[in-house]
Amino acid sequence: MRVLLALSSYTTKKIADNLANNQNQTCVIAQIEDLEAVDDIDAICQVEGIDCIFIGRMDLTVALDQTNASHPDVLAAVEKVVNAANKYGKNCGMFVADLSELPRWISLGVSLFLLGSDHGFMLSGAQQLQQKFADAIKQAEQ
């Protein structure tokens, strides 16, 4: 499988070029994050035009009345989705907060991973800026 990560190119290309590119480069991803979707995963995987099944693991955790995304009930539901995606030849993806889990999911056939959240990236960036500012204050005081 080849994974293509593309940006929309808004403001860097003309609208007509963006529309043409979007028609040729669109990937349809079905997000599975509730119990009904897990129950109907075989039917969902058979929908023509779906390129990837993405597991919303945190939302699925909440749907299963759990607080730990590694609870056995959550893992069983995730594996059910992964197995169905494999059975029907669909790419499968998920958010993975604990990077030590990657080998397991890769070996089961998951090929698309989100390794951080927008909130996490914003907090990390803000912390880096705060540290740079603090460093600048120390440097100025010397």
N- and C-termini, Cα separation:
54 Å
Could you state the CATH homologous superfamily?
A: Phosphoenolpyruvate-binding domains
Into which percent range does the helicity of residues fall?
40-55%
β-sheet strand percentage: 5-15%
State the shape. Answer: flat
**Mean of the pLDDT scores?**
87
Q: Classify the fold: give the CATH topology.
A: TIM Barrel
Give the neighbour order of strands across the main sheet. Answer: 1-2-3-4
DSSP E strands, number: 4
Quaternary status of these chains?
A: single chain
Low-confidence stretches: 1-7
Describe the model.
It contains seven helices and four strands; from the N terminus they run H-E-H-H-E-H-H-E-H-E-H. It is of the alpha/beta class and 142 residues long. It has one domain (15-116): Phosphoenolpyruvate-binding domains (TIM Barrel, Alpha-Beta Barrel). Strands 1-2-3-4 form a four-stranded parallel sheet. Helix 6 (102-107) links the parallel strand 3 and strand 4. The longest helix is centred in the C-terminal third of the chain and has 24 residues, at 118-141. It is flat and about 65 Å long. The termini are far apart. The relative contact order is 0.11. One of its GO terms (molecular function) is lyase activity. It comes from Colwellia maritima. Belongs to the HpcH/HpaI aldolase family.
